Amino acid sequence: MQHQQIDGGRPFDWGLASDDYAKYRDIYPELLYQTLYELGIGLPGQQVLDIGTGTGVLPRHMAHYGAQYTGLDLSREQLLQAQALTRAAGLSIAYVAGDANAPPFQADTFDCITAAQCWQYLNPERAVPAFHRILKPGGRLAIIYMAWLPDENPAVQRSIALVRRFNPAWDGHDSRFQYAAPPWCGESIRPVEHRALDVLLPFTREAWNGRMRACRGIGASLPPEEVEAFSRAHLQLLEQTMPERFFIRHELSIQLFQFL
Questions:
Q1: DSSP single-letter state for residue 122
Q2: What is the separation, in whole angstroms, between the first and last Cα of the chain?
């Protein structure tokens, strides 16, 4: 994947980080899933499409609420991980390889679409009309973004500095969701509600090392030998500066839209 407004146009491939992603990036708190359900996402009988599903984190954790999920992602390597984790959990979730800007589904198929940690990779001018087509009348879109807070987390600040030593082009270090109504809202879609949640996520040194290794700037962008070099340097940094167990504060944003 390549996007001129992300990492200065440097190519990245989430498939390269699939193993670490499956092991270390299933970190959303249960509060996220509960809040989505309260907002009417994932109710029994609904058909829900999770775009940019990656390793299927959101569908796997939401399935017990009663909706039927389909996960869509460009990366076949990510989807292989999603399928393996889904089988291991005894769940039934369909996974499809494809472009979320042009989702390969019939009209009026889904009640809801969820987009977790992936909206920045989409082209709204293409995606929003496509979502309108495949959603049933009155369908909803939930855009989810969880951002670490560098100013409140020394471990994040040090980790960011190290990632940028290995990949100076990486610009995913201090981004937050923008709460204002986006410019692509118009006659066919309107914002309904926004929830901002403050969460403390627990990590061990190994888990945080894996989480950073699985970020776009490292695992999805660098050759294996550089990923390994980063991992060694990062783990040494954590051993010198952090206890074995610690918490990282994040801001979790859920913005809900309804198609008209």
A1: S
A2: 32
Structure-derived torsion over alpha carbons of residues 23, 246, 33, 149, reported in degrees to the nearest 10: -100
Select from 156, 103, 109 the least CA-distant residue to 128.
103
Per-residue CA distances from 19 to 43, 150, 155 (Å): 31, 26, 23
C-alpha distances in angstroms, 148 versus 27, 65, 153?
A: 12, 27, 8
Asked if residues 53 and 82 have their Cβ atoms less than 8 Å apart, the reply is yes
State pLDDT tens for residues 209-245.
999 999 999 999 999 999 999 999 999 999 999 999 9
Distance CA(189)–CA(128), nearest Å, equals 8
Which pTM value belongs to this model? Answer: 0.94
Residue 172 has a CB neighbour count (10 Å cut-off) of 17
Neighbouring CB atoms inside 10 A of 231's CB total: 17
Q: Judge whether 128 and 99 are in contact, CB under 8 Å.
A: no
Within 8 A by CB and 6+ apart from 142, the residues are 36, 39, 41, 112, 113, 114, 115, 254, 255, 256, 257
At 69-102, the pLDDT tens digits run: 999 999 999 999 999 999 999 999 999 999 999 9
Nearest CA to 116 out of 178, 53, 179 is that of 53
98 within 8 A of 69, measured Cβ to Cβ: no
The closest of 156, 157, 250, 173 to 208, measured between CA atoms, is: 156
**Distance from C-alpha of 199 to C-alpha of 55, rounded to nearest angstrom:** 22
Q: How far apart are CA 260 and CA 249, in angstroms?
A: 36
